Amino acid sequence: MEPLCDLILPCRDEAPALAALLPAVPAEFAVIVVDNGSSDDTAEVARRLGATVVGESTPGYGAAVHAGLLAATRDYVAFMDGDDSFDPAELLPMLEDVSSGRADLAVGRRRPVSRGVWPWHARLGNSLIVWWLRRRIGMNAHDIAPIRISRRDELLALDVLDRRFGYPVELLQKATHAGWRLAERDVSYRPRAVGTRSKVSGSVRGTLRTARDFWRVLS
After folding, report:
1. What is the pLDDT averaged over residues 31-42?
2. Distance between CA atoms of 190 and 151, rounded to whole angstroms?
3. Phi-psi region of 95 (alpha: psi -120 to 50; beta: other; left: phi over 0)
4. CA 105 to CA 107: how far, in whole Å?
5. Mean pLDDT for the chain?
6. What are the pLDDT digits (tens) for 6-27?
């Protein structure tokens, strides 16, 4: 089967996760791993398992996402963390939402599969940002799009500029202002792969740094 969509995985030190994640990606997706300054063998594992690898030396989630977007060649692009906390099979109905024309942007709403998967400080920060977006601009999603799918050309035209952790918040804000139709689906949120550590929710400090990036975008 010829893939319909490029799946972009921004990664930094995610080799153990990729070993489990990449074999589970459905055939509808061609994987692009963006190596954002890894000190482990993230790039080597990705290549061995058939992914295209793009290097991005500028640190930051948004920088890695944008590098992947520029490298993509298919009409549709999907984005998902490379830590194996999401099931890539759950991207399939989201791809259908966009490819059928029902939505311009399909996003996932995290549903933790067990206690402790989503630390309280990360969940609190997410809830505050979502509350602000829903109240101030009428966004109809309930999460900050941890996984998402759209058309590549339309996403490029949206011109999301943040290159740090504020990227998804700016994306949702601009998509809402542009009148994009959003489709939101529940997605399983499971423990990240053993041997990897979250740059956002892995510590209170990481969450505070991310929250700073979020509010900078909203200010």
Report:
1. 97
2. 27
3. alpha
4. 6
5. 91
6. 999 999 999 999 999 999 999 9
Q: Give the pLDDT confidence score for residue 192 in this predicted structure.
A: 82
Q: Which residue has the tokens 């998902």?
A: 80
Per CATH, is 5-218 categorized as 3.40.50.150? no
Confidence grade of residue 82 (pLDDT, cut at 50, 70, 90):
very high
The answer to whether 193 and 83 are in contact (CB under 8 A) is yes
Distances, alpha carbon 106 to alpha carbons 79, 83, 93, in Å: 11, 20, 9
CA distance linking residue 171 with residue 141, whole number of Å: 12
Q: Kindly state the tokens that stand for 198.
A: 């979250």
Distance CA 63, CA 72 (A): 14
In single-letter form, the type of residue at position 23 comes to P
